Amino acid sequence: MATLWIGTNNKKKRAELERMLAPLGLELRTPDQLLVPFDPIEDQPDFAGNARVKACLLARLANGYALADDSGLCVDALHGRPGVLSARYGGPGLDDRGRLLRLLEELRPVPLGQRTAHFRCSLCVCAPDGRTLAAIEERCEGTLLTAPTGDGGFGYDPIFVPLEFAGDPAKTFAQLDAATKDRLSHRGKALRALAAALPRLVQDR
To answer: Which domains does the chain have, with CATH numbers?
Structure first.
Protein backbone atom coordinates (compact mmCIF):
# COMPACT_ATOMS: atom_id res chain seq x y z
CA MET A 1 0.00 0.00 0.00
CA ALA A 2 1.32 3.45 -0.92
CA THR A 3 1.91 5.84 1.97
CA LEU A 4 0.88 9.49 1.89
CA TRP A 5 1.82 11.91 4.65
CA ILE A 6 -0.77 14.62 5.30
CA GLY A 7 0.32 17.93 6.74
CA THR A 8 -2.08 18.26 9.65
CA ASN A 9 -2.59 16.93 13.17
CA ASN A 10 -6.12 18.38 13.30
CA LYS A 11 -8.32 15.35 14.00
CA LYS A 12 -11.41 16.74 12.27
CA LYS A 13 -9.48 17.77 9.17
CA ARG A 14 -7.77 14.36 9.12
CA ALA A 15 -11.17 12.68 9.28
CA GLU A 16 -12.30 14.65 6.22
CA LEU A 17 -9.15 13.69 4.30
CA GLU A 18 -9.44 10.02 5.28
CA ARG A 19 -13.08 9.95 4.22
CA MET A 20 -12.48 11.56 0.84
CA LEU A 21 -9.24 9.72 0.01
CA ALA A 22 -10.51 6.30 1.17
CA PRO A 23 -11.28 5.06 -2.39
CA LEU A 24 -7.58 5.41 -3.30
CA GLY A 25 -6.51 2.86 -0.69
CA LEU A 26 -3.64 4.97 0.63
CA GLU A 27 -2.07 4.64 4.07
CA LEU A 28 -2.28 8.11 5.59
CA ARG A 29 0.23 9.28 8.16
CA THR A 30 0.37 12.52 10.11
CA PRO A 31 3.24 14.71 11.41
CA ASP A 32 2.79 13.43 14.98
CA GLN A 33 4.16 10.10 13.71
CA LEU A 34 7.47 11.69 12.75
CA LEU A 35 10.56 11.33 14.92
CA VAL A 36 11.39 15.02 14.41
CA PRO A 37 9.34 18.21 14.96
CA PHE A 38 7.15 19.45 12.14
CA ASP A 39 6.84 23.21 12.55
CA PRO A 40 6.35 24.93 9.18
CA ILE A 41 6.50 28.71 9.02
CA GLU A 42 3.30 29.79 7.30
CA ASP A 43 4.43 33.24 6.22
CA GLN A 44 3.39 33.16 2.57
CA PRO A 45 0.95 35.79 1.22
CA ASP A 46 -1.47 33.24 -0.21
CA PHE A 47 -2.94 29.80 0.45
CA ALA A 48 -0.98 28.14 -2.35
CA GLY A 49 2.32 29.31 -0.93
CA ASN A 50 1.56 28.05 2.57
CA ALA A 51 0.34 24.69 1.27
CA ARG A 52 3.59 24.31 -0.66
CA VAL A 53 5.72 25.20 2.38
CA LYS A 54 3.97 22.57 4.51
CA ALA A 55 3.94 19.82 1.89
CA CYS A 56 7.60 20.21 0.91
CA LEU A 57 8.83 20.37 4.49
CA LEU A 58 6.83 17.30 5.49
CA ALA A 59 7.97 15.35 2.43
CA ARG A 60 11.62 16.04 3.27
CA LEU A 61 11.24 15.19 6.96
CA ALA A 62 9.31 11.99 6.28
CA ASN A 63 11.35 11.04 3.19
CA GLY A 64 8.02 10.29 1.57
CA TYR A 65 5.21 11.77 -0.46
CA ALA A 66 3.25 14.48 1.32
CA LEU A 67 -0.04 16.28 0.83
CA ALA A 68 -0.77 19.55 2.58
CA ASP A 69 -3.56 22.03 2.35
CA ASP A 70 -3.95 25.61 3.38
CA SER A 71 -7.48 26.79 3.62
CA GLY A 72 -9.48 29.57 5.12
CA LEU A 73 -12.42 31.92 5.03
CA CYS A 74 -12.36 35.10 2.94
CA VAL A 75 -15.02 37.69 3.83
CA ASP A 76 -15.85 40.30 1.21
CA ALA A 77 -16.90 42.99 3.71
CA LEU A 78 -13.52 42.58 5.46
CA HIS A 79 -11.52 42.83 2.23
CA GLY A 80 -10.73 39.12 2.29
CA ARG A 81 -9.94 38.70 5.98
CA PRO A 82 -9.29 36.46 7.81
CA GLY A 83 -7.88 34.73 4.71
CA VAL A 84 -4.52 33.03 5.26
CA LEU A 85 -4.76 33.97 8.94
CA SER A 86 -8.03 32.04 9.43
CA ALA A 87 -6.52 29.45 11.79
CA ARG A 88 -4.66 32.12 13.77
CA TYR A 89 -7.12 35.01 13.61
CA GLY A 90 -7.19 37.18 16.69
CA GLY A 91 -3.90 35.87 18.07
CA PRO A 92 -2.63 32.70 19.76
CA GLY A 93 -4.92 33.01 22.77
CA LEU A 94 -8.08 32.11 20.84
CA ASP A 95 -9.48 28.67 20.00
CA ASP A 96 -11.86 27.88 17.12
CA ARG A 97 -14.84 29.25 19.02
CA GLY A 98 -12.97 32.39 20.04
CA ARG A 99 -11.92 33.13 16.48
CA LEU A 100 -15.46 32.61 15.22
CA LEU A 101 -16.87 35.00 17.84
CA ARG A 102 -14.15 37.55 17.05
CA LEU A 103 -15.17 37.46 13.40
CA LEU A 104 -18.86 37.82 14.24
CA GLU A 105 -18.09 40.87 16.35
CA GLU A 106 -16.29 42.49 13.43
CA LEU A 107 -19.25 41.72 11.18
CA ARG A 108 -21.92 43.02 13.56
CA PRO A 109 -22.55 46.24 11.57
CA VAL A 110 -22.67 44.40 8.23
CA PRO A 111 -26.25 43.66 7.05
CA LEU A 112 -27.21 40.13 6.04
CA GLY A 113 -27.33 40.97 2.35
CA GLN A 114 -23.69 42.03 2.42
CA ARG A 115 -22.22 39.13 4.41
CA THR A 116 -20.89 37.27 1.39
CA ALA A 117 -17.79 35.11 1.77
CA HIS A 118 -16.04 32.07 0.39
CA PHE A 119 -13.93 29.24 1.71
CA ARG A 120 -10.76 28.57 -0.28
CA CYS A 121 -8.56 25.47 -0.24
CA SER A 122 -5.14 25.04 -1.82
CA LEU A 123 -3.64 21.54 -2.03
CA CYS A 124 -0.05 20.67 -2.77
CA VAL A 125 1.66 17.29 -3.20
CA CYS A 126 5.43 17.08 -2.83
CA ALA A 127 7.95 14.31 -3.51
CA PRO A 128 10.60 13.19 -0.99
CA ASP A 129 13.17 15.49 -2.61
CA GLY A 130 10.88 18.50 -2.16
CA ARG A 131 9.70 18.74 -5.75
CA THR A 132 6.13 19.97 -6.19
CA LEU A 133 4.20 17.27 -8.05
CA ALA A 134 0.74 18.79 -8.06
CA ALA A 135 -1.05 21.91 -6.89
CA ILE A 136 -4.71 22.84 -7.10
CA GLU A 137 -7.05 25.42 -5.58
CA GLU A 138 -10.84 25.41 -5.24
CA ARG A 139 -13.43 27.54 -3.46
CA CYS A 140 -16.96 27.40 -2.10
CA GLU A 141 -19.15 30.52 -2.20
CA GLY A 142 -21.63 31.38 0.52
CA THR A 143 -22.87 33.81 3.15
CA LEU A 144 -22.35 34.23 6.89
CA LEU A 145 -24.98 34.08 9.63
CA THR A 146 -25.09 36.38 12.64
CA ALA A 147 -24.78 33.51 15.15
CA PRO A 148 -23.35 29.95 15.12
CA THR A 149 -25.75 27.20 14.07
CA GLY A 150 -25.07 23.46 14.08
CA ASP A 151 -22.78 21.09 15.94
CA GLY A 152 -20.80 19.51 13.09
CA GLY A 153 -17.71 20.58 11.21
CA PHE A 154 -15.02 22.80 12.69
CA GLY A 155 -13.59 26.29 12.45
CA TYR A 156 -16.01 28.75 10.87
CA ASP A 157 -18.41 26.02 9.65
CA PRO A 158 -21.20 26.99 12.12
CA ILE A 159 -21.69 30.40 10.48
CA PHE A 160 -20.99 29.57 6.82
CA VAL A 161 -23.99 28.88 4.58
CA PRO A 162 -23.09 27.52 1.13
CA LEU A 163 -25.12 29.06 -1.69
CA GLU A 164 -26.90 25.75 -2.30
CA PHE A 165 -28.43 25.94 1.20
CA ALA A 166 -29.13 29.66 1.37
CA GLY A 167 -32.92 29.15 1.40
CA ASP A 168 -35.35 29.40 4.28
CA PRO A 169 -34.24 27.94 6.57
CA ALA A 170 -30.58 28.28 5.68
CA LYS A 171 -28.18 25.47 6.59
CA THR A 172 -24.57 25.93 7.62
CA PHE A 173 -21.71 23.55 6.94
CA ALA A 174 -22.05 22.53 10.59
CA GLN A 175 -25.62 21.32 9.93
CA LEU A 176 -24.89 19.24 6.83
CA ASP A 177 -24.12 15.54 6.78
CA ALA A 178 -20.59 14.58 5.84
CA ALA A 179 -21.42 13.44 2.30
CA THR A 180 -23.23 16.69 1.47
CA LYS A 181 -20.49 18.84 2.91
CA ASP A 182 -17.84 16.89 0.99
CA ARG A 183 -19.78 17.43 -2.23
CA LEU A 184 -20.00 21.20 -1.78
CA SER A 185 -16.93 22.19 0.20
CA HIS A 186 -13.76 23.82 -1.05
CA ARG A 187 -11.70 20.90 0.28
CA GLY A 188 -14.00 18.31 -1.27
CA LYS A 189 -13.79 19.97 -4.68
CA ALA A 190 -10.01 20.24 -4.50
CA LEU A 191 -9.54 16.64 -3.37
CA ARG A 192 -11.77 15.30 -6.13
CA ALA A 193 -9.78 17.25 -8.69
CA LEU A 194 -6.54 15.90 -7.23
CA ALA A 195 -7.68 12.30 -6.69
CA ALA A 196 -7.30 11.25 -10.31
CA ALA A 197 -3.62 12.18 -10.27
CA LEU A 198 -2.66 10.84 -6.84
CA PRO A 199 -2.37 7.13 -7.71
CA ARG A 200 0.30 7.82 -10.34
CA LEU A 201 2.07 10.43 -8.22
CA VAL A 202 2.26 8.42 -5.00
CA GLN A 203 3.97 5.07 -5.43
CA ASP A 204 5.31 2.51 -2.97
CA ARG A 205 8.94 3.27 -2.24
So the answer is: 3-201 (3.90.950.10)
